[in-house]
Amino acid sequence: MWRLITNALTSNNSTSAPNSLLTPAPSAGSHEERDTLTAEKHGATGKDSLLVVSPYTSPPHLLDLAGLNPSQVYLAKALSTLAPVTHAYATISYTKAFNWAAVFTGLATAVEDDAFKWTEQFFYIVVFRSQIPPTTDRRHLEELDMRAHAEAMKSGGLFKYWFGIADADGRNLATCIWRRREDAHPGSSGEGHKAAMRATINMYSEWHIERFKLVIGDNVEQWVLSPWAD
Question: Are 129 and 90 in contact (CB under 8 A)?
Answer without folding.
Answer: yes
